[in-house]
Structures are given as structure tokens and as C-alpha cells.
Amino acid sequence: MENVKKKRTGQMDMLHGPLMSKIILFALPLAASSILQQLFNAADVAVVGRFAGNQALAAVGGNSSVINLLVNLFVGFSVGANVVIARYVGEGKADKIQKTVHTVISMALICGVILSVLGNVVAAPLLKLMNTPEEVLPLATVYLKIYFGGMPFFMLYNFGSAILRSIGDTQKPLYCLILSGIINVGLNLLLVIVFQLSVVGVAIATVTANGVSAGLILLFLCRSKESIRLDLRNLTLCREEMVKIIKIGAPAGLQGMVFSFSNVCIQSAINGFGTDAIAGSAAALNYEFFTFFVTSAFAQAAVTFTSQNYGAKKYERCRNVWRISVMLGLCGTGILCAVFVLGREFFLGIFAADAAAVRYGAVRMLHIQVFSFMPPLYEVTGGVLRGMGYSMTPAVLTMFGSCAVRVIWIYTVFAWNPTLEMLFWVYPFSWVITIALVVGSYFIIGRKALVCEK
User: Diameter of the chain by CA atoms?
Assistant: First the structure.
């Protein structure tokens, strides 16, 4: 009866039974959810690229690195929430779960408000620092300001989804995004084609869709019959749980923030090649996101499965989580990379109508997308380490391997040979270094932390 109940309510038993099928069932809805969330921006890019021209396309597509720079620190806290709640689930501490859930939602609201204010203040200065072309700057600034106005919705969805993931429920966030994604695409077409609102229209559509997904995720939490049930009247900030969340989440957030800073530097270099290069790169970037979301799904699976099993002292299962998640991540991303690269002209043509932009996008795909099967090796490994409570180690190593190396490359190798091809080679080079560092650290830490249970 207990297993039936868990199945009906969405909770997954991560502590017993076969791992591979459960990791797949956990990761696939999560990957689909992330891809749908990215489709918010991809729909913006496709609609403005087709109906508002290259300047509007560059304004929307070139903003992703700025958005990620400001958002990733706070999204990192949701990783901490996932780990802390999943650990309590493994330990069977229902009272601790309740305190953490209400603290997490309170943190989401606070982070969202901070980001709304911060994004509107720094939008224009950041875009200028990135060498955004003058003809693109006004549109890009307007898009960013409206987008960041909806940050409380974005944070509520991401933190709420982290709570659901902690018990293995990745389906409800997917349902939220299916509905909000349909709304987003419909509003894009209406506001851009019919009302001619260009980037303002796509920004309004994205914020509205985020509001729908946030409302639905809160509804699911309030109606949950599990220990993660939310009562909005009991929102609080429990200092003990907040410290645990920040201790695990802050390194992950800093990693994402520094990672985004390196991408801002790369985007600044791309901006120097003109509007067509920005537009083509933005079109190709969407497919890198899709590939990375498969990586991220298995990394999140590794975090959650490891957290629960580590809390229950099932160390051999933790080791198996790493092996299975890495293998599945490599297979999933490898297939996607092959499909996107082989069909690159078709896929790029979805977002960019201009032939010059498509040519630039193809250059990016042949230098980056071809190698995008590599990140699961360090992302999944970092997820396992975070699930064990070692959050700072993968963060520092990844910041060096995938961030510092890229910035150094821009000011040395790229400065020596300033071509777009040389700029893009930094990605596979930095991935090789990061894999060596993070995987090596896992084997060193694992010898001590994953001692077989008696």
C-alpha cells in the first residue's frame, strides 16, 4: 500500500529497487521542463527573427548571457533547497522538511524582488559594457527591463520545482510549463505580428507565461498530500535551514554566475563581429541550451538521488548513481548533438531568416555543438559531490576550468588570432580541463566519503 500511495502522489522511492529506470523517469520530465522553459526565449528569438528583423533578433538573443549572469546566483539556492529537503526525506525527518519548504518559498519571493530591482538598474550599463551595437542597445535594454520585472514569478517556479524534485516529482513542473509554454507562444504571435510590439511584445509574453507557471507550481505544493505540503500562511525564514540551503546553494550559484560572466566576455567578443554574427550565434545558442538541459537533467537526478541515499547511508547506491547518470547523460547529449549538427541549416533556419546569420550560426555549431556531449562528465560528477554535501569543491574547480580558462583564452589566444573560429574553440578546450579536475576530485573524495555501509 505504501508504494501505491507514493506512486499516486508523485513521490518516488529512490532508496530501493533499480536505479536506471528511476533516474530516466526522473530526468526525462526534467529535461523536457528545462527545454520548454528555454523555448520561452527560443520562441521570442524565432518570432522576432522572422517578423521583426535582425536587430530585434540580436536584442533578444544576445541577452541570454546577461540574464544568466544576474539570475544564476539565486537559482543556485534552489539547488541547495533540493539537497537539504532530499537529505531530510532520506533521513525521514518530516518536521524539518516542513520548515525548509516554507523557508524556500520565502527565499524565492525575496530573491525575485531583489532581481527585479537589480536587473532594471544594471541593464543598460551591462549591455554597454558588452559592446552591444548602438542600433541594438535600445531594444535590448527594454527587453531586459521588462524580463526582470517578472523575476518573482521566475524564482517561485524554480524554487517550487526544486521542492518537488526533492521527492522525485519532475512531472508536475512539466505540466506547468506545457500550459505556460502554449500561452507564451500564442502571446508572442499576437503581440508581435498583430500588435507590432517587437521586443516589448515578446518580453510581456515571457513574463506572463512565467506568472502562469509560478501560480500552478504553488497550487501543486498547496494541494500536496506529502510532507512538502505548503501553507502560505506559514511562510517563514528559519535561520537554521536557510544557512544549510545557502551553504550548499551559494557555491553552485557562484559557479553559475562566474560561468555566465565568462560567457558575457565571449558574447562581448562576438558583438564585435556585428549584428549578423550576434543573430547567428543567438540562433545556434538555443540548440546548445537544449543539449545542456539534458546534461542538467541527469545532473539534477544525480543531486537528488545521491542526497536521499547519502542521508540514508546507502553509499554503494551513491556510487551507482554516478555511473548510471554519467552514462545516460553522455548517450542523451551525444544523440542530440548529432541531430543538430547534421541538420544545422534546417535548425538554424527556424530562428534566423537571413542567410548571413545562418552562416555565422553554422560556424558556431561546428565548433561548439559538435563537442557538447562532454559536459555530462563534469556536471553529473559535480551533482553527486553536491548531493554528498561537497558543494564548494566542484564549484571552485568548474569556475577555474570552464570560467577562468575562457577569460584567459579571450585575452591571449583569441587576442593573438581574433577570428570567430578561434573564439569558439575555447569551449571544448575548457571542457576537457574541467572534466579532468572535477572527475579527479570525485575519486579522491569518494574514497573517504563513500565507505561501504556495514
Answer: 67
